[in-house]
Amino acid sequence: MTLKRKIKDILTDLMIYTCSAFSVFLLLGIIIYVFVKGIGTVNWKFLSSVTSVLKGTVGIAGNIVNTIIVILLTMLVATPIGVGSAIYLNEYAKKGKLVTFIEYATETLAGIPSIIFGLFGMMFFGEKLGFGYSILTGTFTLILMVLPLITRNTQEALKTVPDSQRAGSIGLGSGKWHMIRTILIPGAMPGIITGTVLAIGRIVGESAALLFTAGSAKLLPKGLEGLLNKPFQSGGTLTIQMYLSATSEGDFDTAFGIAVVLLIIVLLINIVTKMVAGKSIDKTRKD
Question: What pLDDT does residue 80 have?
């Protein structure tokens, strides 16, 4: 190896490590800054109560419940549709202009700014369909937003399963659906899980679209009946409340406290994703 090539390799390695270190320090800097500013606000009372002038309390329990409802409703609808669409496009649909157009449309949808989804959701789901300013309107809007993410990730995961496994299963007399259910989906499960959890992460962090559709109410539902009726009422998620606390109310202590909670949620989501995906890969290898 010539001296010139050695120098190039050294410079390349240096640039790679420098960029990696910058990314790590940037992440640590943001996390440390947010935790230092907000950790003093986070306590059990903050997490289990709602903000009330009469009671003199500041809390985000209502926003946590709203966030959970939005996540559950969105994923209950988006996950089967997204995974099913990916299976159809990858395994059943004949390759051609139609499939290419659908994939292009899916990729384009994934790149549309969320505020445009919010405007569409407000006018279509809220006004035309009559759901009004409610969690349900926000949920339908978020379904449109995360569907491309789930679909494309599932497609890429399905493509990682070797064709030899498909051919071997069919050659042994297995039907198409049986092959998909027993060979394809388990083999692609780590990628499917990753796409699903990334969608949850986007739901947790979304604010622009929900400002137009779901509103900002932060009261806790009263009893089972109140919980069942909650999707038809206005409800602000954690990100909405953080935005309002920092802008309209000027309460930066609460805003940073919510930011700490959101960071912990995102970190837990990433940890769970790694663990579940790792277990799925190990199980697939053993099988």
Answer: 93
